[in-house]
């Protein structure tokens, strides 16, 4: 366990995985086609580096030339956690990506010791962590879609928002809730706030979060306009 001078544990976030590719522009186009965010594309002389991030991921990939990286295609079983492996697979197919059928491992997640480790179809018990699909980028770097609907206890870090940022977000929420409060039946403000704040923290714009909160109030709590 790493601690700072005060004895508190130091945050260490896995931010970047470096991939080896043979053609930077080709690799960039492939990952852009997946809908991944382009964070950086720097080229100077013989140096060219690209950073991209999967949607809603806190970790990114980097590849390029003039950087220290594995041989093209050396990375295998890089994991992308998804809520629904079948839906994620359909999305890849729609983007013309060659992706495997859904499967599970005979001996449990990532266990390749069996003679035929991959078994066709989802995990029979539909457990989180057990169902997969796989695909490769143009260089053969391998990716696994792993379905995780419910994480095991202790598998998520909870980060506290600093007070100043929370104050700004609460003020924004109050401003957007004002119109809703004037136009809808009596309700608990905290229900709307919770839906709005959750959407904003998950990357929605203020307008999108407002729509999410309105829809939550209507569909879950049946709060309709006056």
Report on the architecture of this protein.
By secondary structure, this protein is an alpha+beta fold. The protein has three domains: 9-74, 2,3-Dihydroxybiphenyl 1,2-Dioxygenase, domain 1, CATH 3.10.180.10; 76-151, 2,3-Dihydroxybiphenyl 1,2-Dioxygenase, domain 1; 163-219, no CATH class. The chain is 30% helix and 21% strand. It is built from five helices and nine strands, in the order E-H-E-E-E-E-H-E-E-E-E-H-H-H. The chain has helices spanning 24-33, 85-94, 163-183, 189-201, 206-219; strands at residues 16-18, 37-44, 47-53, 60-65, 78-82, 103-105, 118-120, 131-136, 142-147. The strands form two sheets. A five-stranded mixed beta sheet has the order 5-9-8-6-7, with helices on one face. It has a four-stranded mixed beta sheet with strand order 1-4-3-2, covered by helices on one side. Helix 3 (163-183) packs across helix 4. The radius of gyration is 22 Å and the shape is globular. The chain starts with 15 loop residues before the first strand and ends in a 7-residue tail after the last helix. The relative contact order is 0.10. The model has no long low-confidence stretch (mean pLDDT 92).
CATH H level, superfamily name of the largest domain: 2,3-Dihydroxybiphenyl 1,2-Dioxygenase, domain 1
The secondary-structure element order is: EHEEEEHEEEEHHH
Number of strands: 9
CATH topology heading of the largest domain: 2,3-Dihydroxybiphenyl 1,2-Dioxygenase, domain 1
CATH architecture of the largest domain: Roll
Largest sheet, in brief, is: 5 strands, mixed
Mean pLDDT over the full residue set: 92
| Annotation field: number of helices | 5
Radius of gyration (Å): 22 Å
* Arrangement of strands in the largest sheet: 5-9-8-6-7
Q: Helical proportion?
A: 25-40%
Q: Describe the global form.
A: globular
- What's the CATH C level of the largest domain? Alpha Beta
Q: Return residue spans where pLDDT drops below 50 for at least 5 consecutive residues.
A: none
Tell me the fraction of residues in β-strands, as a range.
Answer: 15-25%
Structural class: alpha+beta
